[in-house]
Design goal:
transmembrane; P_typ_ATPase; single chain; 27 helices; 22 strands; alpha+beta; 782 residues
Amino acid sequence: MAVTSALEAPWRERVRTWAEPIFLAVTLTALVAGIVATLFDADDVADACWIAGTVVAILPAVWWVIDALRRGRVGVDLIAVLSLVGTLLVGEYVAGALIGVMLASGQALDAAAERRATKDLRALLEHAPHAARRRVGDEVEVVPLGDVVPGDTLVVGPGEVVPVDGWVTSELAVLDESVLTGEPMHVQRRTGEAVRSGVVAAGGAFELHARATAEDSTYAGIVRLAREAAAESAPVVRIADRVAAWFLPLSLTVAGLAWLISGSATRAVAVLVVATPCPLLLAAPVAIVSGLSRASRLGVVIRSGGALENLGHATTLVMDKTGTLTSGRPAGTDIVTAPGGDGTEVLRLAASADQLSPHVLAEAIVQEAKMRGLPLSLPTDVAEQAGTGVAATVDGRRVTVGSLVLPDDAPGWARAVLSRAALDGAVVAWVTVDGDLAGALLLVDPLRRDAARTLRRLRAAGLDRLVMLTGDRREPAEEIGSVLGLDGVYAEQTPADKVNGVRAEREAAVTVMVGDGVNDAPALAAATVGVAMGARGSTASSEAADIVLTTDRLDRLADAMEIARRSRRIAVQSAVVGMSLSLVAMGFAAFGYLPPAVGALLQEGIDVAVILNALRALRGDRDRELALPDDTEAMLHRFSAEHDVLRDDLSLLRDTAQLLASGDLPAAHTALRRTDTFLFDTLLPHERAEDTELYPALAVPLGSGEATATMSRMHAEIDRLSRRMRTHLAQADAAGALSPDQCDDLLACLYGLHALLRLHFVQEEENYFTLAPEAERPGDSA
C-alpha cells in the first residue's frame, strides 16, 4: 500500500481531475470533426482535425513514457508514442486520431480507479492530544504537550486521552484501552501501574507520573509506524507494464522486419498501430473498475484497482480479534444466582440500577434486559464509583452492580462463577441486594455468527493461511482460534508486534490484514492489502486501509475476495485474448494486408470485444450466487429471531443441573418442571416447525434435502433427550420427589442437551441463517 498522491501532491491530483476528461473530449472531438469534414469533402480540414487529435495525444503519451522511465520502467506506452508519430510521418492521419481516442479513454478509465486511492491517516493525528494538565503544588495548569517532561505530575480528566506514557499515582484509574488493544472491556489500573498514551480515561479523573515525552510515548510511535509502513509498500504495477517486458521488443522487432523486408515505412506503422496495447489499456481497467463498482453495491469500498488486483491473488489473511472475528460489544451470556434466587429478577434489578451509567458493561446489561422484555424501574440515590460499579435504590431495595473481591469463605456457587468466567474469558458483574450477594452476570465479547462460514468461504476462494493477531489474553484468543480452525494465533500483541507479524507474513505471501481499531492502522498499512471493518471501526483504520467494509458484516470480506478473483480473471482473460488478436493482426499488417487506418479500425473492434467481455465483471458469478425466494428469506428471519429468544432460556438446563449437583433435590424437582415446560411448549415446537417448514424450503436453493439431513437427525436426538427427562419428571411426580438414583442420568441428559442445543444453534446460524444475514441481531453468539 502506498501513501496516496492526494496526500503527497494535492495540486497534481487536481490537475489530473480536470485534465483527463479534457484530453478525452479533445481527441474524440477531433476524430468526429474529421469524419464530419470528410462527409462534406473537406479533406484538408479533416486531415487538420485528425492531425490535431494525434498531436494532442502525443503530448501526454510522451509524458507517460518519461514518467515510467523516471521510475525505472519501460511500459507499452512507448508503442503508442511510436505509432502516433508514425501515423503523422506516413500521412495516416485518421489512424493517429483513432489511436488518440483509444489512449484518452484508456487513461480516463485507469484514472477513475486510481482516484479511489486515499490513505489519509488524519484520524490518528486528530485523536492525539495537543495539551496536557500539569499539576504543580496545588495548582493545575494547561501546557502544550511538547512541554511535558518525564517526572511531571499530570491530571487526566474523564473522557480525556492520556497524553504521555506514565505510572498511575491515584488510587484507581479506569481506562478504555481499545485504541491500543482493540479490547472493548474497560480496565482498571491502580497506584504504580503503567499506562500508555492514547488510551482514554473511562472513569473519574486520575493523576499520572510522566515517564516519557509525547514524542517518545506509545501513541506517537503508532503514528510513525503507520506512516513508515505505508511508505514502504511499493505501488501496484499495471498488467500492461508486466506484459511490456516481452510485448514491447516483440512489436518493435516485427515492425522493423516489416520495414526492412518490404521497404515500406507504412507497413511498420501499421504493425505499431495494431500493436497499440488498447486491450490492456482499456479492457483490464474496465474489468477492475467493474469489480470496484460491484463491490461497492455490496458495502465494500475498494479504494484502488491495485488493491482489488492484489486481493485477487492473496493467499494469507491476518485478522484482529475484537470487532473482526468477535462483535466488539460485550453481551450477556448467563445469569447465576444464589441458591433459591430468581435469575430474571436479578437481571431486572441490575439493569434498573445500571440505566443511568455510561459504562460499556452497564449498557450491555441494560440491553440484555430490554431484549428479554423485562420492565425496568427508575433507580434513585444512584452512586457510581469508577472501577467498582453502581449502587442504587430500586423498588425500595439497595442494589449494587459491578466488580467485587470475594472473601475467602465465599459460597461455592460464587467460586464456581469465578472459575467459569476464567474458562470462558468472561467478565463478571456481581449483583448484591440489600447487602446480600444475589447473583452474577457473565458477559463476553461474542464470536460473530458469520465468522466460521466466512472463513470457510475465504479458504475456498484461495486463502491457505489464516492468522489472528490480537492484544487480548492468550486463553480466549486460543479458544477462538481452535473454534475457527485458524492456522496461527498470536495473543497479547502490541501495535508494534502486529506490524512485525504482518510484515513477516507479507514477506512469505501476498497478505491481507483485517482490523477495526486505531491500533490496527499500522498493521493495515504494512499489509499488501489492508481491510478495515469501517461500519463502526475507527476512522484511522478505515483511512489507513485499501478496502473498507461499510457494513458490519465479516462475510462481505468473502464477497470482496470472490469479486476480486473474478474481476482479475476477467481482466487477464480480456487482456490475453485481446493481445492474441493483436498479435495475429500484427502478422497481417507486416505482410501488407492491413493499412494503418484499417488496422486502427480493426483494433477498435478488438477493443470493443474485450471491453464487452470485461464488463462481465459487473455481474456476479451466477454459479456461486444463491437465490432465496422471498418467503424462504422471511422464514430465515423468523427462525433467527426465535433463536434469540430460545438461547436466553437455555440457562434453565444448566441451572437445573447445578441444583441436582448441589443435592438440593426439592429445588431441582421444581426446576425440572420449568425445564420440561420450556422444552415441550417452546423448544420442540420450534424444532418441528424447522423440520416441516424451513428445511423443505431450503432444499431447493441448497440443491438437495441432504443439506439439512444432519440437522433433522439432531432434532430427533433433542426430542429423545427431552422425552427421557419427561419420563424422569413423571416418575418424580408419582413418587412426590426426585430420587437420588435419578440424579446421574438426569445430569447426563441436562448437560448433554445443553451442549447439543448450543452446537445445533451455532450450526443452523452459520449454515442457514447467515444466508439472510440482515436478520441477524448484532452481537449474538450461541
